[in-house]
Amino acid sequence: MSVILETSAGDLVVDLFLKLCKVKYYNFSPVHGVQKGFSFQTGDPLGPDSRDSDGGSSIWGLLSGPSKRMFVAEIDPKLKHSERGTVSMATVPSSRDADERLAGSQFLVTLGDDIDYLDGKAAIFGKVVEGFDVLEKINDAFIDDRGRPLKDIRIRHTVVLDDPYDDPPGLVVPDQSPVPSKAQLATVMIADDEELDIEVDEAAMEKLRREREARAQALTLEMVGDLPFAEVKPPENVLFVCKLNPVTHDEDLELIFSRFGKILSCEVIRDKKTGDSLQYAFIEFENQKDCEQAYFKMQGVLIDDHRIHVDFSQSVSRLSNLWRDSTNSKRQRQAGGFGGISSLEKKRHYREGGGFGERDSKYRMVFDKEDMGKGKRREEYRPRRKSRSRSPRHDSRRDDRRGVWLDRRAMMAGFTLADRSGVAGSPNVKPPLLRGLLRFVCINSFTAINTTSTTITTIVIMVGQNQLEKEQDASVTTGAPLQEPPADEVQIARAWYEKAGQAHVFAFYDALSTADKSALFHQLQSFDPDRINVLADKALHPPSSESARAPTIEPLPGSASASLLESDKQQVEQWYNTGLGLIADNKVAVVLMAGGQGTRLGSSAPKGCFDIGLPSQKSLFQLQAERIVRIQELAQQHSGRATSAVVPWYVMTSGPTRKPTEQFFQENNFFGLAKENVIFFEQGVLPCISNDGKILMESKARVAVAPDGNGGIYNALVASGARTDMRKRGIQHIHAYCVDNCLAKVADPVFIGFSASKDVDIATKVVRKRAANEPVGLIIQKNGKPDVIEYSEIDKALAEAKDDDGSDRLKFRAANIVNHYYSFRFLESIDQWAQDLPHHVAKKKIPFFDTASGATVKPDKPNGIKLEQFVFDVFPFVGLDKFVCLEVDRKEEFSPLKNARGTGEDDPDTSRRDITEQGARWLRNAGAVFAATGQGSDFSVEVSPLKSYVSNLISLGI
After folding, report:
1. Residue 526 has what DSSP assignment?
2. 659 pLDDT above the threshold of 90
3. Side-chain-side CA neighbours of residue 45 (13 Å)
4. CA distances from 516 to 103, 137, 213, 427, 857 (A)
5. Domain residue spans in the chain?
6. Which of 487, 612, 826, 936 has an alpha carbon 20 to 30 Å from 15's alpha carbon atom?
């Protein structure tokens, strides 16, 4: 029961969408009411701009007349707008019955997850199953102040794929799509096939304007503490916070400031049109004493790398009045910065009333009068980031949100839902759990509940310990006391773990200090014991593979592979120029996987800090940073522009390496890169599991955890906000690699250009396998999908097989070096597949705290498992038409650092040798001749990355 909607933006395949599509009623219907991240509306053949429109008719209205134009919508309370692409009928309240809602032909498609505002207001009847890229195009469309796309987006055709229901009497199905009527053509603004003048980048100009305005307003805030037109005397229990990082959100501040006392509201102020943070916030405490304590303790504290300024809203208001009264008119006009005070005043009025303007009643579908006011657009909905006002009702609203969390934990722990008075089965109980996919802000997890009938399924995405550690660090910095977790929440959490058979994690909880209780409770909140049990069971008791059919393994087809060793030089130069152009356009970002420590190298520091023994004594971090510096310079020279190219560097660390990595960068002045273009984020963790499936404890107050592997990069990009930062920067191409490769060509323009020209979602670099017995993983196709096969999984016959072309080359020779390319459009789909990535088992000797004996045990044999994901586990999620690999020269691009000095293989000496031999090779290519030294070949040549990025392919004048 599916329908294809062919729109001017692309095709959508929707399940359950039939009769009106069958009679071609929707053809040429315009898309309107576009609200970014929320939904768009369509379904009226004439649209809201036509005087002749009746708002659209149901199939019964077409057959039986206008009296049947509307029908009573069936709203199933079990169906929720939990996923992007949910399709639902727009409805309005019935004048006959307040509990009824009427629908016609108009429908909505959600553009974000968790749009619970529409639950109970729109009748869900289907979902988009193909064409999510089309939703992105509609979401990003330029719109006017009423939500109309400036360039028409229309339904061109509807194709019913499957209709098992009988047609109603009198239904006539046309043979072909009808020609647009005169009334429809009259509503065309800019035709969907009309080419626009793209010489002026309006988006870039608007972005520049907003950046200037934000900077000017930030200056005003720093000078005065608040907006100059603030007239209302605020209560003395409200704290004003400014100079925030734009990535800081409401819940981040609430989490940090809640240690001082109960918070009634916490709101980062945002531009209602763009959603941009204005970099200041108001925090309302329950009492003035807690507010004063927060003021004294949080002044100048670092939050998200910004040192915040804190003041009482009361004093801010008085200071603002004094400043305004004492200044002359000229200074008053200029003090607001870009645009002056008048501009800020206009912005205030805009925020208070900005919207879509008046709409005819038939276009208030879904939004009731009490929601819309007098025709004004409702406050912009931000999925997953609930805005919070400072109204008197906020206390109860916050309690409701807390109640949602408690109800969710209670149900999963087996409790009966009760109302706020604790009476089980009370009819006043609201169904917050039945809101589909909800985001719960626990310290370091995103927990979602997907409800079908009465069954609750939980998906937990681990995002690491960094947030908890930030909270503890802030407490140490400010001297603020940690509060003991609420007893009711502890009781529910304890019951949840008991039900999952993991009650031992609370064995010593009651005897812990307040700080330890808080740390343990927050850590346990970040895990879902039921999910952990499922993962542990799969790991400890994997399904039998005897009945499983052996996979079909083949090399990648020629269409999905290429080789720099065999490519034409002109083709390589073309890839290089394409990539350099994308870098010059600021479309390229780099992600560095740098979570490992140098333990095997004899160092406890992050591996990127290691000095491999070069004459310059440069660390791996410095070598790679300087390559970014150089490629930015080359890109700027290539473009001929006055402005510098920027390649943002996203550095993924682990819990133990986060602080020392950031400190190392700070001590070295970020190696010449702009600080704001180096973004640190942290991979997630998972609990260590004993051989009998129990969560291992590191101590009485801490669960033993391990990093979730380099495959945790995908969840970490989302959870840390790194993906959001990429989106704001307009990044389209991402290069990801591991820190331990001293020859890594960071932001390699050849690789970027190659991948972009192929229009793929994933690309990977490989080197040619040296010998059949070399222990490396290989890039292959398994059952028609790109994949990686480990050395241990390859039998001798397969490893030694020769190429079909009759040469002596190995058939399977594409060695994986963990050097990948991703399109940003693919990273935008992380939420759709991240939970399906497999977990791999590593059996380890894990020291643990024995809760039975109360002693720490150091086992002499493997006693448990650590679960991890691999970055290449995502390969099978794309087809061969969206995947490609590029073979590169090993001696130019791959020299891993794995072992301690003296082993002779993949150690500091081999890394140093490969760097210096490369330098000598580059100089010889440039015409250099080395004089005899009297010491044979005992000399080293190091070419600084700041002088030359590459020499063997294209001369860049070293």
Report:
1. T
2. yes
3. 22
4. 55, 48, 45, 39, 21
5. 2-185, 203-354, 394-526, 555-925
6. 826
207 vs 938: CA distance, rounded Å: 55
Residue-wise DSSP of 399-428: HHHHHHHHHHHHHHTTPPPB-TT--BT-TT
Give the span between the Cα atoms of 411 and 456, in whole angstroms: 9
Q: What is the dihedral of CA 356, 204, 646, 577, to 10 degrees?
A: 120
pLDDT-based confidence at 208, cuts 50/70/90? low
Q: Which residue has the tokens 């501040």?
A: 253
The Cα 395–Cα 389 span in angstroms is 10
Query: Phi-psi region for residue 792, left (φ > 0), alpha (ψ -120 to 50) or beta?
Result: alpha
Characterize the bridge pairing of strands 309-312 and 238-242.
antiparallel
What is the enclosing helix (H) or strand (E) of 825? Answer: helix 824-827
Compute the distance between CA of residue 167 and CA of residue 738 in angstroms, rounded to an integer: 60
pLDDT (average), residues 787-795: 87
Long-range contacts of 423-431 (CB under 8 A, 24+ apart): 430/400, 431/77
Backbone phi, psi, residue 930, to 5°: -95, 125
- Whether 847 shows a pLDDT value over 90: the answer reads yes
Q: Is the pLDDT of residue 495 over 70?
A: yes
Please name the residue that has the structure tokens 């109603």. 168
pTM score: 0.56
Kindly list the distances between the CA atom of residue 3 and the CA atoms of 126, 214, 581, 789, in Å, as whole numbers in the listed order. Answer: 10, 45, 41, 39
Counting Cα atoms < 13 Å in the Cβ hemisphere of 44 gives 25
Cα–Cα distance measured from residue 75 to residue 434, given in angstroms and rounded to the nearest whole number: 14
Q: What is the CATH number of domain 203-354?
A: 3.30.70.330
Helices (H), 260-393: 288-298, 313-326, 329-334, 340-353, 369-372
Domain 555-925 is in which class?
Answer: alpha beta
> How crowded is residue 510: how many other Cβ atoms within 10 Å of its Cβ?
8
Give Cα 596 distance to the centre of its chain.
23
Give CA separation, 517 vs 106, 485, 494, in Å: 53, 7, 13
Question: Which CATH code fits 2-185?
Answer: 2.40.100.10
Place of tokens 């290539």: 638
3-state helix, strand, coil in the chain (%, to 5): 35, 20, 45
